[in-house]
Design brief:
With about 475 residues, the protein is an alpha+beta fold. The chain has helices at about 15-20, 40-50, 90-100, 135-150, 175-195, 205-215, 230-240, 245-260, 310-325, 330-335, 340-345, 350, 365-370, 375-385, 450-460; strands at about 10, 25-35, 60-65, 65-70, 80-85, 110-115, 120-130, 220-225, 270-275, 295-300, 390-400, 405, 410-415, 425-430, 435-440. It has a six-stranded mixed β-sheet with strand order 5-6-7-2-13-12, with helices on both faces. It has a six-stranded mixed β-sheet with strand order 8-15-14-11-9-10.
Length: about 475
């Protein structure tokens, strides 16, 4: 089917396509708000968000192996209200969201829920990772509450988010010389082998792996919450030791994990620290809904014979050095050189097809694909999984938004990044009103007891 110009928003990048079909690549930001939410004002505010964020009400359409965000004939953004019974009910609602797949071909790729009471409510924004990151959802939360508090306000449409593709990346961020030639030769070889044994997938294939995966797993969360006094005390201690709160969080969790489980081995010794690229692009990307995350990988071993603050200082210095030498945009150049149809399945179908059992409609296709050891997507998936770090710490820091919107006040924010069984420690942190919440996110119930102990030990180090 040919798309009209008015439907096209923009083409997906390789980085966006690698998340599009993954059962676990979804991101959540939840706000606990004080005050009464008017349901009509809230629904109207959600509807108006498309006047602010170009990608918020889109779907995906494929054309000759290229994928496009399009905005024609997309259903309204879902909004759901449920009666609030207690402080933990919103967690059950989020766990339910994880068991409900998005359909990229119909859209939209975002949903809103409100766990509602007269005095306290939780606003849940649940979004597919291909169009968002945690920072983006904080901005969407801000805009939503601002519009709800001021229904007649004029809404400024933000520019279409520039994709993280070569033409928009900083000058000098790509490889050059011999290194570039070696990379390009290797990528051409990978693409050639993939195309010789290429396989494509559709929504039914995705719903098979999605259902099979979530029958075996359940999204779970452990919380480390710090009230304002505790957060301010930690900030002061970090200043006195010339480190960041993020470095202290990383060291605390790594030390606690090592005490209980021993050292990470091999590539799991790496710590991934995501970096917001909005302000690093030229021109800056602004507060738009889109995926703008790079990361730094740092190899680090916590020394149990050293003090917590000595460990934190050493980690902090390693991160600073890696920040100086890491080209945060190189990965995006590399992904654009890889066949995007392979990216569609490398981190989604390749690692999850094994969960599909004979009663599923696409078992034969997915089982055959998973056991095809010569398939380049399978090979690359294993290589990708082998390079994953032992810990990912995504700290959004102090939320760059107000805490009060009309009669509504944000009490706390909760950030739940995407995760899976390949990440021993997947952490999300955000602070508002001087209250910091760290979430430990996992999908295997067998890890619960150990991770509760890790979280408890980490908090004692931070106090």
């Amino acid at each position: 089917m040919t798309m009209s110009y008015s439907e096209k928003v923009r083409e997906l990048t390789g980085n966006e396509r690698k998340f599009l079909w993954s059962p676990v690549a979804n991101v959540n930001v939840t706000a606990r708000v004080l005050g009464k939410i008017d349901e009509n004002d809230f629904r109207n505010a959600v509807a108006k968000l498309e006047k602010r964020h170009p990608l918020i009400r889109t779907k995906v359409r494929y054309q000759n192996d290229r994928a496009w965000f399009v905005n024609g004939d997309v259903p309204e953004i879902p909004v759901r209200f449920v009666k609030r019974n207690d402080d933990k009910q919103w967690i059950d609602e989020v766990m339910g969201e994880y068991k409900t797949p998005f359909n990229p071909f119909t859209g939209p790729l975002i949903r809103f829920s409100v766990v509602l009471s007269e005095e306290v409510s939780e606003i849940i924004i649940y979004c597919q990772h291909s169009i968002c990151d945690g920072t983006a959802l904080v901005y969407v939360m801000r805009d939503l509450l601002e519009i709800a508090a001021n229904p007649d306000m004029a809404i400024e449409l933000l520019p279409l988010p520039a994709p993280l593709s070569p033409e928009n990346l900083p000058e000098g961020s790509d490889m050059s010389g011999l290194k570039a030639k070696i990379r390009d030769a290797a990528m051409n070889s990978i693409n050639k082998k993939w195309r010789q044994n290429k396989i494509t997938f559709d929504q039914e294939d995705f719903e098979n792996i999605f259902s099979a995966y979530w029958q075996k797993h359940e999204y779970r969360i452990i919380f480390l919450e710090m009230e304002a006094q505790e957060t301010n005390r930690l900030v002061q201690a970090c200043r006195e030791n010339n480190v960041t709160v993020n470095s202290a969080l990383c060291a605390a969790f790594l030390g606690a994990y090592k005490e209980l489980n021993g050292s990470f081995k091999g590539n799991k010794r790496s710590v991934a620290v995501p970096v917001d690229l909005r302000r690093r692009m030229k021109p800056e990307a602004g507060d738009v809904l889109s995926l703008y995350v790079g990361s730094i990988l740092c190899k680090y071993d916590y020394h149990l014979n050293e003090s917590f603050w000595d460990n934190t200082k050493r980690f902090h210095q390693l991160i600073l050095k890696d920040m100086e030498k890491t080209n945060l945009f190189e990965i995006f150049h590399n992904l654009e050189r890889m066949d995007h149809t392979m990216l569609d399945c490398m981190v989604s179908f390749a690692p999850t097809a094994k969960y599909v059992t004979p009663e599923y409609s696409r078992f034969q296709k997915l089982n055959s694909f998973y056991h095809d050891k010569k398939n380049m997507a399978i090979k690359m998936s294993k290589k990708f999984a082998g390079a994953l770090p032992g810990m990912v710490m995504t700290n959004l820091g102090r939320a760059n938004i107000k805490d009060t919107y009309g009669r509504l006040k944000i009490d706390k924010l909760f950030f739940l990044p995407s995760t899976g069984e390949d990440f021993p420690l997947a952490l999300g942190a955000v602070t508002i009103n001087d209250k910091m919440v760290v979430t430990v996110n996992y999908v295997e119930k067998s890890k619960e007891s150990m991770l509760l102990q890790v979280c408890d030990k980490a908090k004692r180090q931070l106090q």
